[in-house]
Design brief:
3-stranded antiparallel beta sheet; mainly alpha
Length: about 190
């Protein structure tokens, strides 16, 4: 005959949660399966990857607070950096964002409905369409930049000015190296 004993913490199954190894543990597992991996290189690469992912999540949360998507933010940015009067044709926007014309049209449709941009015929060439940043669109972009600046300063608070310059230089060299190896992506750093 068995008696029921009260369940202890050790008897209860652990809750199922997504598993992400610490970087050192992940590198050790890689080394176990692929002994030729350089642990120092892999630690740097995994750390950069994790920083990038977490920064992306933080930026997306900020944009959600503002009621815009990262895709919409990219359009706002392209218009802002084009300079006053913050106007571009949809073809130029598509080219700058590496989008198909159809994808650009869909994105612009949403943004016009949200009041972030306007779409008008060019008075000097009625065939041409102009996408222009609205005051609301510019305000949202500026607020996103303010929020990002606070986040980024907090992110780098433990890295002193001179260290920041060194880190910036090292990352720029890494970026140039990867771009020289051929991966195509918008925003190449030829101007670094």
């Amino acid at each position: 005959m068995t008696t029921d004993k009260p369940a202890t913490t050790a008897d209860k199954p652990a809750p199922v949660t997504p598993l992400e190894f610490g970087i050192a543990e992940q590198v050790a597992l890689y080394q176990r399966e692929f002994p030729m991996v350089d642990p120092q290189v892999e630690t740097i690469v995994q750390t950069l990857n994790r920083v990038s992912r977490r920064m992306g999540v933080a930026y997306d949360r900020q944009l959600t607070v503002l009621g815009i998507t990262s895709a919409e933010w990219e359009v706002l940015k392209a218009l802002v950096v084009s300079g006053s009067p913050y106007r571009l044709g949809p073809g130029e926007l598509a080219k700058r964002l590496a989008l198909t014309p159809a994808a650009m049209t869909h994105r612009i449709d949403r943004m016009v409905a949200e009041g972030l941009v306007t779409r008008e015929r060019d008075e000097s060439n009625r065939v041409r369409v102009i996408i222009e940043l609205t005051e609301l669109g510019r305000d949202k972009w500026l607020e996103s930049m303010r929020m990002a600046a606070v986040f980024e300063e907090e992110l780098l608070q433990d890295i002193a000015g001179e260290e920041r310059a060194v880190l910036s230089g090292l990352l720029a060299r890494m970026l140039l190296r990867i771009e020289e190896s051929g991966p195509e992506a918008p925003g190449r750093s030829a101007n670094l």
